[in-house]
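pasting for ref. prot 1 ->
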Amino acid sequence: MNVASERCSGPGRPKDLEKRAAILEAAKRLFPQHGFEGTSMDAVAAEAGVSKLTVYSHFGGKEALFIETIHCKCDGLLPHTLFNVDIAAPVRGQLLGVARAFFALMMSEGALGMHRTLVASSQQSPKLAKLFWEAGPMRVQAALADMLDKEVAARQLDIADTRCAASQFFCLLKGEHHARMLFGCGRPTPAETEAHLEATVDMFLRAYACDRP
């Protein structure tokens, strides 16, 4: 079992692990479909095949379950190991690995559905939007910024503000394709996706690669 699956399963006996995993899978399906307000703990329990008491015993409340759902979604496609730095390897390859995983996450139906529901409810539920931002995008940006810090220390990159650069990188990756998917205007082909990701990484490196002889 890898780190991400261990984290999402949590500690406990095998039956407890199975129930926890079933609850998380149910939440991952229901939150994007019905939003935070439209997803009840009763519905999660029914979808997972457990009692509502079991859901509360594992997660305490709906906010905690929502946050853990976001953590697990991110950890599943963007595991912490993806941001480990290999100084001997070309930085372009490492950035492409992050780019491919991030783009796959952002273009998944679950992530797109969550984005739509959060935008629709952001005025009524600003706290929910803040919880999502801290549980997902903020953590992922911090992980990339830490990776960039190591590349700067190894003189692979020249970046004055790695937090800003991490934000720029992810915004460039989303680009037009993410907006088109949100509007229902079509998914890019695998070839178009790869061309977009490589062009984005190359643009990023033209801005931040060290000029060394």
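and prot 2 ->
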Amino acid sequence: MKKMELYDTLTFVGEQFRIQGKLYSYETITNGNINSTYKVTYRRGDKSLKSYIFQKVNTVVFPAPVEIMQNIDKVTSHISKKYPREVTLHFHHTGTGENYYSTGEYFWRVMNYVDSITFNTCDDLAVIASVGEAFGRFQMQLADFDGSQLYETIPDFHNTHKRLEKLFETVKADPVGRVAEAAEEIEYIRSVKEKAEELSLRYSRGEIPARVTHNDTKSNNVLFDRDTKRPIVVIDLDTVMPGMSMYDFGDAVRFIANTAAEDEPDIRKVYFDTGKFRAFSKGFIGQVKGALTDEEIDNLVLASFSITVELAARFLDDYLNGDTYFKINYPDHNLVRTRCQIALAKNIELKEDELNWIVSDVAQTKE
């Protein structure tokens, strides 16, 4: 899309959402790999400038965008009514009342711009604790929200049992002849399958409470104040739906406490940082310990292990299928990702007693 074409497109989208003023400038936001995101600034009648976030939703990755936006509308409305003095996400509505605009080919949404910073990676333990606090608070903000109102926009997204069953179906079929190359990785996942899928099976039987969960708890999905480095608001609500609170915790620490990149080829560099784990645990548990059951708190480490194995299985399944889902930069990219996650899962298991002690210690600490 050429510059003038994009300007015209953004102008047209702004008109659909009744944005006041004249489009003054725009810039592409490069964080995130799924949707196309722009910071768009308008000059209003009084000559002041006001910015918005325009997003073109990737409807290949999210084939049910209307359901996603209905979920978002319900969740953000609940939070803003409950906490009227706090910064919350606000999605603008069109003249016909929708919080999205669709041409059939393209699907757009517009939200308020929050002046802030984000952290893709971070070694500052205070900031890591704040990330945990933000995601824990997000769950508490929605603790009294009826999750049955929400669509399951990605069915079985974190159903570890089904993810592993799918992997071993692929192993049996060996569709592109790669199973022999991944024999060691397949055998490891097979050896921990029962442990890794325990929580998802119990959840499916109703033995673990369904919570309203974020399902993409990376540190860069929290906006921070530029000066104080305090969390302002949690963003990227496309995957908000009912799930296990423990898995939100586990996915966050899987990402934030890994000492290496998710696709680090030298697995000797991969281990689970207990200091970062404690920092995140302090922030998260400090917010939710009055709401989660003792059993949920006691299984936070198992959840961290389980979701790490789940992601390893997803990378491996994609590799064995010929790399049809995850974007790759070289032929064995998904196999390298698999090995990295397996190394992390092994390190979590190795440190399991210490990590459980940290959770217990944090949970018993009175602020």
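Residues 11 and 91 are 17 Å apart (CA to CA).
The domain at 125-364 is CATH 3.90.1200.10 (Aminoglycoside 3'-phosphotransferase; Chain: A, domain 2).
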